[in-house]
Amino acid sequence: MKPFIALFLILNLITFGVYGIDKLRARLNLARISEKTLLALAIAGGSVGAVFAQKLFRHKTRKFRYRIWMILSIQFIVFELLWYLSPLLIQTIRSF
After folding, report:
1. Which range is most confident: 4-8, 19-23, 53-57, 70-74?
2. In the chain, how many domains are there?
3. Do residues 6 and 38 make contact, with C-beta atoms less than 8 angstroms apart?
């Protein structure tokens, strides 16, 4: 379980940082990081970091299509987490 938590934290920190870098690049009129890359990081496990970065940096909050993809990526991460924890959940339910 600990490697899973460590990987989750690392992915979210990386995603948060990449969103921050993209926002900085947008302010400086430099080449931007593609939306596909940002969404891929969120789907790969960094959706919590992506949401926090969006709120903190006010980044990618106006695009409706992007918000839909973020919601889907969060649902995907929740599904992954439930699948990973399913043996523990089943064991806990059976113990009642």
Report:
1. 19-23
2. 1
3. no
Interatomic CA distance for residues 42 and 75, integer angstroms: 11
In this structure, are residues 73 and 47 in contact, taking their beta carbons and an 8 Å threshold? Answer: yes
Supply the DSSP string of 1-63, one letter for each residue.
-HHHHHHHHHHHHHHHHHHHHHHHHHHTTPPPPPHHHHHHHIIIIIHHHHHHHHHHHT-S-S-
User: Confidence band (pLDDT; 50, 70, 90) for 19?
Assistant: very high
Residue-wise pLDDT tens digits, 54-86: 888 886 666 777 677 777 777 777 777 777 778
* Structural domain span for residue 64: 2-94
